């Protein structure tokens, strides 16, 4: 088969928040590239290792030989490290003339790729990281993207690896709350990740038997939540389980943030205080936080990540740059990277899963 790209050496990086399955992508891409006779290098912590010879006391670039990726499919995290320190293009450093202006490290990045004779980059990341990768592609870098986010909110792919593991972790935690909530006749509010979309809250709340599920797509009313709790009390079900995505908000209000940090958080505590005041019931909270990102990926996420890694190398083989691999139906395909990062996949408020939950008596606070 004839391919349009003349490839001898590629690089791989991981950016943004970590997700179970990152190491599986790295392993699959490395081994698939080796099968083509290519050299593979990993960039530590996003693009930091490309622009700095030393990152955290380690060389910024590491050669990914077979030994480096042996036995890592089941491991959480990423052997390359990652960073969430903002958009490379969003900083405003001081310019040579003393003024402040936007940062554009693209020329330094592209020059460094050429200096190292790296022919293409496989960029593994979520919405923010892939937008950076797309911008670098538009400036001349050969890039193929791999979608990574536990929120499952990239519109171009039916599923992202890490999501099923996050749902599994959250579902187990929610399930464990039932016995203690019932024993003490408490209301338990479990906060899960999901700043802009409620996929984790919806899927884990439904599977875990939650009574109330609050997601960013459906603004809630505390009164409606209280109605559900008191309805259960009248039915002698004197406890309730509430699952809330961190980005959910009251109707007419805004999401909850941690102080002045701009970070989402605190909604479980706020809700608990409001529910306790309205019902007189003891209300406790559980914030799962980064435990949803950690640990070993479930088999589904391992296999999807391995498929994505191999498909990314195939896209490089074909010279299909400026693309992202995506699961569509049962097949992994390449889609335009620019289109992929343009569309956030939100929970359909009248979709089949939401309708199922409502028919089972779940309240969405509306």
Task: Write structural notes for this entry.
The protein is an alpha/beta fold and 366 residues long. It is 35% helix and 17% strand. It is built from eleven helices and 13 strands. It has helices at residues 22-35, 48-51, 106-115, 127-138, 163-184, 199-207, 222-234, 267-279, 299-317, 337-340, 352-359; strands spanning 9-14, 39-43, 54-55, 58-59, 61-63, 120-125, 143-147, 187-192, 212-214, 240-245, 283-287, 323-328, 331-336. It has a seven-stranded mixed beta sheet, with helices on both faces. The protein has a four-stranded parallel beta sheet with strand order 9-10-8-11, with helices on both faces. β1 (9-14), α1 and β2 form a beta-alpha-beta unit. α1 packs parallel to α9 and α7 packs across α8. The model has no long low-confidence stretch (mean pLDDT 90).
Detail the topology: elements first, then pairings.
Layout: E1 9-14, H1 22-35, E2 39-43, H2 48-51, E3 54-55, E4 58-59, E5 61-63, H3 106-115, E6 120-125, H4 127-138, E7 143-147, H5 163-184, E8 187-192, H6 199-207, E9 212-214, H7 222-234, E10 240-245, H8 267-279, E11 283-287, H9 299-317, E12 323-328, E13 331-336, H10 337-340, H11 352-359
Parallel strand pairs: 1-2, 1-6, 6-7, 7-12, 8-10, 8-11, 9-10
Antiparallel strand pairs: 2-5, 3-4, 12-13
Low-pLDDT stretches? none
Q: How can the largest sheet be summarized?
A: 7 strands, mixed
Task: Name the strands of the widest sheet in spatial order.
Answer: 5-2-1-6-7-12-13
Q: In terms of structural class, how would the helical and strand content be classed?
A: alpha/beta
State Rg.
23 Å
- Total count of helical runs of at least 4 residues: 11
Q: Average pLDDT, to the nearest integer?
A: 90
Our measurement of the CA-to-CA distance between the termini, rounded to an integer number of angstroms, reads 56 Å
Beta strands, count: 13
Proportion of helical residues: 25-40%
What is the H/E string? EHEHEEEHEHEHEHEHEHEHEEHH
Shape: elongated
Strand content: 15-25%
């Amino acid at each position: 088969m004839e391919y349009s790209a003349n490839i001898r050496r590629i690089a791989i990086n991981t950016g943004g928040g970590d997700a179970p399955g990152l190491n599986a992508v790295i392993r699959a891409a490395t081994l698939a590239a080796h099968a083509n006779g290519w050299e593979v290098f990993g960039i530590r912590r996003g693009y930091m290792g490309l622009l700095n010879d030393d990152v955290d006391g380690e060389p910024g670039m590491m050669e990914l030989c077979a030994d480096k990726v042996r036995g890592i499919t089941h491991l959480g995290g990423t052997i390359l490290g990652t960073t969430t320190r903002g958009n490379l293009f969003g900083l405003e450093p001081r310019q040579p003339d003393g003024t402040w202006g936007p940062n554009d490290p693209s020329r330094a990045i592209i020059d460094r790729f050429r200096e190292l004779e790296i022919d293409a980059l496989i960029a593994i990341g979520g919405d923010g990281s892939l937008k950076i990768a797309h911008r670098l592609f538009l400036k001349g870098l050969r890039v193929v993207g791999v979608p990574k986010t536990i929120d499952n909110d990239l519109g171009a792919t039916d599923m992202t690896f890490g999501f099923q593991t996050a749902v599994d972790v959250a579902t187990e935690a929610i399930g464990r709350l039932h016995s203690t909530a019932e024993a003490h006749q408490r209301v338990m509010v479990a906060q899960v990740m999901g700043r802009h979309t409620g996929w984790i809250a919806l899927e884990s709340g439904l599977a875990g038997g939650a009574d109330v599920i609050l997601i960013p797509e459906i603004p809630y009313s505390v009164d409606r939540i209280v109605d559900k709790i008191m309805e259960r009390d009248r039915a002698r079900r004197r406890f309730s389980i509430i699952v809330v995505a961190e980005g959910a908000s009251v109707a007419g209000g805004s999401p909850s943030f941690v102080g002045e940090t701009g970070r989402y958080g605190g909604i479980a505590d706020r809700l608990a205080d409001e529910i306790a005041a309205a019902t007189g019931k003891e209300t406790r909270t559980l914030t799962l936080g980064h435990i949803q990102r950690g640990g070993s990926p479930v088999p589904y996420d391992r296999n999807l990540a391995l498929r994505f890694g191999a498909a990314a190398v195939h896209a490089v083989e074909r010279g299909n740059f400026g693309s992202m691999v995506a699961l569509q139906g049962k097949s992994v395909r390449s889609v335009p990277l620019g289109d992929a990062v343009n569309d956030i996949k939100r929970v359909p408020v009248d979709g089949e899963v939401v309708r199922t939950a409502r028919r089972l008596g779940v309240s969405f606070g509306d």
